[in-house]
Recover the amino acids of this structure.
């Protein structure tokens, strides 16, 4: 002889006198219109949560205590567990009560009808870890499609550019000193040096701006 079927459990609360349980889940597909296609292509974005609807009756001396327990679970909004034959094959770890209704009818003292909706609440994935780059590993986006090791090479290149700028500025200073001799009458022989000084100064200013930007980027 088979034993009595176990009653559904919501957390530590036994759901007595259950009249009806319904479990449903959407496959997660949505219509995608395609030009020239009869009907819609189907795109799946992932499985939504399982949903369970329970209707039952609370009776007897413990009816009000059982009602208070269900109302407390529904009002708290906290995750809990749910066990019933209808969800045995499902990996239903945690649930939340999204809706609860209770009602009494005239002529039925001590009897409370209730209806509650339970929805699966899966655990979130582990948070992204901080990396030495100063942000999230892969920026929290996974593979970005390029080798992030080149960022270190760019930092080295910025240092090389800074050294080249310093050398260029030293050359500008030397050319300025030579151009100062133009106050003497050399019949414009140092005019080309003055033009070179002006050009190098402009290039050095541009390089300095670029190096400052790279320095801010790579610290």
């Amino acid at each position: 002889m088979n034993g009595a079927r176990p009653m559904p459990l919501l957390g530590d609360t036994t759901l007595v006198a259950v009249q009806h349980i319904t479990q449903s889940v959407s496959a997660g597909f949505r219509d995608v219109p395609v030009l020239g296609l009869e009907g819609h292509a189907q795109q799946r974005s992932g499985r939504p949560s399982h949903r369970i609807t329970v209707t039952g009756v609370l009776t007897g001396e413990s009816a009000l205590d059982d009602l208070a327990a269900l109302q407390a679970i529904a009002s708290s909004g906290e995750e809990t567990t749910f066990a019933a034959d209808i969800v045995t094959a499902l990996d239903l770890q945690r649930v939340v009560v999204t809706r609860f209704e209770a009602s009494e009818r005239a002529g039925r003292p001590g009897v409370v009808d209730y209806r509650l909706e339970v929805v699966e609440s899966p655990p979130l994935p582990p948070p992204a870890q901080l990396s030495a780059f100063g942000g999230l590993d892969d920026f929290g986006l996974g593979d970005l499609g390029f080798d992030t090791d080149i960022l270190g090479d760019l930092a080295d290149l910025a240092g090389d550019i800074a050294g080249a700028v310093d050398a260029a500025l030293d050359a500008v200073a030397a050319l300025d000193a030579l151009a100062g001799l133009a106050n003497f009458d050399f019949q414009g022989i140092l005019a080309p040096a003055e033009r070179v000084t002006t050009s190098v100064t402009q290039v050095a200013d541009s390089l300095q701006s670029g190096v400052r930007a790279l320095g801010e980027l790579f610290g």
